[in-house]
Amino acid sequence: MRFLKRTGCAMAGVVLYVGSTLVMADVVVVVATASPVKALASNQVADIFLGKANRFPSGAQAVPVDQPEGSVTRDEFYAKFTGKSAAQLKAHWSKIIFTGRGQPPETVSNSAEVKKHIAENPNTIGYIEAREVDGSVRVVPADPQ
Amino acid sequence: MTPRLNRLALAVMTLYAGAVDADDSTPPMFSLSSFGTVGIVHSSEKNADFTSSIYKPNGAGHTRNWDADVDSLVGAQLTANFTSQLSAVVQVISEQRYDDSYRPGLEWANFKYQFTPDFSVRVGRTVQPAFLFSDSRKVGYTLPWVRPPGEVYSMVPVTSTDGMDLSYRLHFGDLTNTVQGNYGQSDPRLPHNTGKSLAKDSWGVSNLTEYGALTTRVTYQQTRLTVESFNPLFDSFRAFGEEGNAIADRYDSKGKRFEFVGVGAIYDPGKWFAMGEWGYFDSHSIIGTLSAWYLSAGYRMDAFTPYVTYARSRTLSETSSAGLTTSTLPPDLAGAATGLNGALNTILASSSSQQTLSVGVRWDFTKNMDAKLQYDHTRLGSSASGPLINLQPGFEPGGTFSLLSLAVDFVF
Q1: Is the residue at B35 inside a domain?
Q2: Which residue of B15, B23, B25 to mutate against A (max A Cβ within 10 Å)?
Q3: What is the ipTM of this complex?
Q4: Is residue B209 less than 8 Å (CB to CB) from chain A?
Q5: Residue B217 counted as domain residue
Q6: Does residue B206 fall inside a structural domain?
Q7: Window 5-24 of A, Cβ < 8 Å to B
Q8: pLDDT, tens only, A79-137
Q9: Which of B27, B192, B30 has the alpha carbon at shortest distance from B100?
Q10: A82 → chain B, closest CA residue
């Protein structure tokens, strides 16, 4: 009985895990087509967007650009790459803002604006829905946590 | 309580007058942010006041049954980016002050020059580093609790310092290490016309390491501390010749070296968190030698984060003194000496030794705001009064007391 229960829990866990991976898999990290950045680990993406690093591992400047607060893409991105909810992210930036140590990434209104920004500034790194990727940007493979 | 909240509301409106909405696409020249807490506290100890800081003159318990002064505050911050290297920050906070007013005080006012993306220098009024949450200890929204555990955070109650600091950040693969050095001075005023606490030639070194979900911090700080309110007592001791001088040299706080060591760590993978801090200070004076620590953990369930904290402080230095030898003194002087000995021993005995168990829940009920409910139960060491002030005749040291706190935090 106990064995059955345990197996059931494990299976439920696997189903949940697969389910969440499928749901969360839509957001991709994008850079300029000309960017030398080939791949990033998820924690490197997290460090850039949380203000802990302002350079790519190669040493080149990294300028993150955010989607608006409350957008599904944004919430999914931060959940996937930093494990932080919108409220935790707000608390994280409050800690930094209220000591004058930094400001959160610039926010643009939607994925089209992210792509436009990246085209204008090759140091920019952003995130958009996978289906919105076109020839103006390049997806950076980034393993989620 | 009502006129107090009105004053607070007025302060909020004043701070908002002239607010600039800086939501441009380019990094703005000026950005205005604000934060605050509206909280009420009830204490089971009716013969004394609980306060959250030695800079507050009264609080919950004796003075008020439900007190809004313990945790309520509002702050506004203007950040100016002059160039990509040069910026300035001014932060003003309105909270209960030593004189029981809410007159806004200047918390930070500094220029920062960013020599490289990883090396910066700040000059002016900056944070007094000591703890994991020193940078934002007054921004309730950034804290998991209603207020930081008093056992540890009261060890360095001063929050800002006038001087400069340097910060150097190093990256080793996935590990980010930030070394900070600071130098400065402060002279905050204490309540009840007891003068100031003067900290001169303060300096320190802090090391912050971030690796994935783990953050650790180690700090060493030292200063030359003078607590003016102790001066008359030891001036009187000095009138008793060699023995009096020896006692005064041992216990007075005129420019004595105050050293502090702090170690802390947070592990926060997202779904839950666990953290702890340990602190130790040696004042080389009547303030004594103290060590304190806390452990805290919380679990996030959607918008709710229940948490539990256990904190403990222990005085390591002596809590009594033989004082002046009265038997060899003429009767009139012996009376005065007995009085001085009594005063000295009362201060030594009240030294902080206590433990607190806290349980609470944070509710992120809407964007930019949270509400917290917290229950604390404190057991004081024998003859200690801990964080309690305005002790009334019926107060018995060394007992227990409980607090119930409600707070709403916001950031904009």
Answers
A1: no
A2: B25
A3: 0.73
A4: no
A5: yes
A6: yes
A7: none
A8: 888 888 888 898 899 888 887 777 889 899 999 899 899 988 889 999 999 888 888 88
A9: B192
A10: B270
From chain A, the residues in CB contact with B87 under 8 A are: 100
Whole-number Å distance between alpha carbons of B188 and B56 = 11
Q: Give the CATH number, domain containing residue B346.
A: 2.40.160
Q: Which domain holds residue B263?
A: 41-63+123-411
A25-80 pLDDT, tens digit per residue, is 589 999 988 888 888 888 889 889 998 888 888 888 889 999 998 899 999 999 88
Number of residues in chain A: 145
If one counts the domains in chain B, the total is: 1
User: A55 and chain B: CB distance < 8 Å anywhere?
Assistant: yes
Chain B residues whose CB is inside 8 A of the A84 CB are 270
Contact A53 B139 (CB under 8 A): no
Q: Is A61 part of the contact surface with chain B (CB cutoff 8 Å)?
A: yes
CATH 3.40.190.10 describes domain A26-143: yes
Domains of chain A, residue spans: 26-143
3-state secondary structure chain B: CHHHHHHHHHHHHHHHCCCCCCCCCCCCCEEEEEEEEEEEEEECCCCCEECCCCCCCCCEECCECEECCCCCEEEEEEEEECCCCEEEEEEEEEECCCCCCCCCEEEEEEEEEEEECCEEEEEEEEECCCCCCHHHCCCHHHCCCCCCCHHHHCCCCCCEEEEEEEEEEEEECCEEEEEEEEEEEECCECCCCCCEEEEEEEEEEEEEEEECCEEEEEEEEEEEEEEHHHHHHHHHHHCCHHHHHHHHHHHCCCCEEEEEEEEEEEECCCCEEEEEEEEEEECCCCCCEEEEEEEEEEECECCEEEEEEEEEEEECCCCCCCCCCCCCCCHHHHHHHHHHHHHHHHHHHCCCCEEEEEEEEEEEEECCEEEEEEEEEEEECCCCCCCEECCCCCCCCCCEEEEEEEEEEEEC
* Domain presence at residue B254: yes
